[in-house]
Amino acid sequence: MKTNLERIKRDIEYISKFNSTPGDGTTRFSYTEEDKKVRKYLTEEMKKLGLHTTVDPIGNIRGKMEGKNPLLPSIMAGSHIDTVEHGGNFDGVAGVISALEALRVMKENNFTPDHSVEIVVFVEEEGPNFNFPLGGSRIMTGAYSVEDLKNQINSDGVSMYEAAKKFGLNPDNMENYMVKKGDIKAMIELHIEQSVVLDELKIPVGIVKAAAGRKWIEIEILGDSNHAGATPMKFRRDAVVGASKIISKVDEITTEKAFESTVATVGKIDCFPNIPNVIPGRVVFVLEIRDTDKKGIEIVKKEVEKNVEVVCDKLNLEYKTKELSETEPVIFSNKVITILEQSAEDQNIKYKIMNSGALHDACLMSRVADVGMIFVPSIKGRSHCPEELTNYEDIKVGADVLLGALVELSTI
Amino acid sequence: MKTNLERIKRDIEYISKFNSTPGDGTTRFSYTEEDKKVRKYLTEEMKKLGLHTTVDPIGNIRGKMEGKNPLLPSIMAGSHIDTVEHGGNFDGVAGVISALEALRVMKENNFTPDHSVEIVVFVEEEGPNFNFPLGGSRIMTGAYSVEDLKNQINSDGVSMYEAAKKFGLNPDNMENYMVKKGDIKAMIELHIEQSVVLDELKIPVGIVKAAAGRKWIEIEILGDSNHAGATPMKFRRDAVVGASKIISKVDEITTEKAFESTVATVGKIDCFPNIPNVIPGRVVFVLEIRDTDKKGIEIVKKEVEKNVEVVCDKLNLEYKTKELSETEPVIFSNKVITILEQSAEDQNIKYKIMNSGALHDACLMSRVADVGMIFVPSIKGRSHCPEELTNYEDIKVGADVLLGALVELSTI
Lengths: 412, 412
Fold this sequence. Notes:
The structure is a homodimer.
Chain A: H1 5-16, H2 33-48, E1 52-55, E2 61-65, E3 74-80, H3 93-108, E4 117-122, H4 135-140, H5 146-149, H6 160-166, E5 184-192, H7 197-201, E6 205-211, E7 213-222, E8 226-227, H8 239-247, H9 250-257, E9 263-272, E10 278-279, E11 282-291, H10 294-315, E12 318-327, E13 330-331, H11 334-346, E14 351-356, H12 361-365, E15 370-376, H13 392-409
Parallel strand pairs in A: 3-4, 3-5, 5-15, 6-14
Antiparallel strand pairs in A: 1-2, 2-4, 6-13, 6-15, 7-11, 7-12, 8-10, 9-11
Helix pairs in contact in A: 1-3, 3-13, 8-10, 9-10, 11-13
C-alpha cells in the first residue's frame, strides 16, 4: 500500500485557501470562519471513508475507522489545522492530511484493521490566539482542565472557553471526552521538522526519539541609569555592558560545555529606559535552554548563572534570576520507534533518528499512550512564516512510513 | 559682594511647587500652567530689581539691567525652567536662580555695570515634549528656524509652533528677536553637573572648558529568525549572539583605545521578534560616542565598526550601519574661562577645570558670543530623576563665582 502524492498535494493546497491573511502567509486561528470551513472539508472527507466522526466539546475532531475488534484500544494519527499569524501551509496540516491519506489507502485496499484506527485533528495547537499552545491536547489528556480555558484570553478579551461556546461547542461537557490510559494503544504524529537538519542532510524522514524539555530563566541586571554624555566610563554601572558580556558567552557555554542536543537562546531582551543617550539602569532578558537530556539544561543554567555572578561582581552590578517555566523532556515509545523504523526500512526509505526541539500534541499524548513522531524536511528550516515550505514528495514519503506503521500497529 | 544662600534655597523650593507630577519627581513642560506660574514669579522678581523684561515670540524670557553704556553689548547669564518628565528640582532652575540672585546682589550693592547685564530663561531646553531639545536657544541663535517648530510634534499631535500660539505667543515674529554676533559680549550658564565627578572629588565648582561632540550610529545585525527549540546551535544565524559580542566590547574599546574624555554607550537595543522561543533574526542598537576631542569619537567608531565586521563575518551574519546624527564639540571661550577661574580664586573657592558630556543652551550661545559654564555637584551624579539633588551650599558657591565673573565682564 502506498499513499498518493497528488491527493496529498490537492488537500493541502485546498486547505491553504482558508486563510484570513491572503498574500501575507497563512493565518487560521481556531474557532474562526476559516477554521470552520477546513473542519467541514475534513469531516466530509472522513465521512466519504465511512469514518465515525466526533467533535469533542472543545473542538478536537476524531474520525474512527472501526476495527475488527471494537473492544481493542484505537491506533491514532493526526496533528492540527490552526496556524500562527502569517504562518505557512504545512505546520500541522501535513500531519492531518497524511493521516487522512493513510486511511484512504487502507479503505481503497479493503484493509480492515484489528484495532480501530483514528484520525485526530487537535484544536488550538499554536496558541498565539489565546496564549495557550497545545491547548486541545492538553485538555484532551487531562494535563489542564476546562476551567483553565476561562483564563486563556485573546487580544479581544475573549476567553478560549467563551470562544468555544460561541463556536457552538459546550466545553463543560468535556469530562466525557477525555482520553485516558488504555483508550489509545498508540499515537503517531507526522509534522514538518521546523528546522534545517533533514534539509541539510537531504534525508526525507526523521523518526523522533525524544522531544526536548525546556527551561526559561529570566535574568535581570541592575545598574545605575545616568546621563550617557555626562558620566565618565569609570563611574558607570551600565546594565547593558553586563548583560552583553553575559549573553555573548551563552553560545560558547552551550556548544563547549553541554551536549550536541542542547540549545540555548536569548530571544527576548528589554533594556530600560531604552533611549540612546541614557545609560541603561536595567536590562531584563530571558534565557531559554532546551535538551532531551535534563543534564544539558542544568549544565548551561549553572554555567550561565556562574558567569552572571562573575560579570556582575566585576562590574559592580546587581542581578536577579527567576525561573519562569519548565517542561520535562518527553521520551517517545521504543516500541513505536521500532515499528516506524521497520516501516521505513520495508519501503527502502532513508530516515534519521533525531530529537524534536519543539513540543507537539504528540508529547501530550505520551501521557496516555505509546507515541511516535515522523518529521519531514522544512526547506531551509523555515517555519511559522510565509516562507514555510516542505516538498510534497517528502510529505508523501513520510505518509508512507506512517501508513506502514499504522497497518503494523493496528494488526494483532 | 556675596550671594545669599537662603534666598537661593527659597526661590528653588518655591519654583519646585509648580509641578504636574507631585510626589513623583518634578514635571514642568514648556507652555503649561506650571510653566506659566514660574514665568510669572520670575518676571515679578526681575521687575522688583528694575529689570526691563521681554518675552520673545517663542517664550524665551530676557530681563535686562541697564548698564552705564547702553550701546555696549550685554553680558548674559541664565539657563532654563522646563524639566523632563519625573525629573528633579535643580536641572536648569539652579542656573536661572543663580543669575537672578547675582543681579539682586549687584542691585543691593548699588553696583551699576558698564555693559548691561541680562538674565535669560530659555524655553524648552529638555525637549521630551516636542522632541526638540535646546529648542529655545536653537531658535534664538538661528541654528534652527521658526519653520522647524511646525515639525516638532508632541504626543497629542500638537506642534511646538501651535503650542506657542496657544500659550499666547506669536512665533512668526521671532525674526526681530534673534541674537546675532555682537549683540551679546559674553554668556555664562551655571548648571548642575549631572554626573559624579564633582561629588566624588568633593569640589563645589567645575569650570567647563568644552562640551563634548556626539555621534549616534545605528547598527543593525541580521540573521535568520527561527524556532529556538528546533534549530541546533551549529545551524543558527542568531542576531543576538552577534550583537552581544559587539556590544560587550564597546566599553573595553573606549577605555583602552580612546581617551579619558571619550564615552560610549549602547542605551537602546531592539530585538526582533523579541519572543523567548524565537531565535532573533534582527537586532538594532544605537551606539552613542561623545568626546570633546573628535579624534576620540573617530577611534571608537572605527574600532567598533571593525569589530562588527569581524563578528558578523565569523558568525555568518549580515549588518548595516547608519550614522543617525552628529554634533561637533564646543570649545568654550578662553577669556571667559580665565575670568571664571579668577573669580573663584579671588573668593578662595576650590574648582576643577572639566568638560561637559552633555549639551546645554550655553553651547548654542557660543555660536554668537563668548561663553563659559559653571558646574555645581550632583549628589551621586543623579539627574533627570526624582532623586536629583544638589546642595544649596554648592549652588550658592557657584553663584558667587558667577557673580564675580559677571561683575568683571560687565566692567570696562
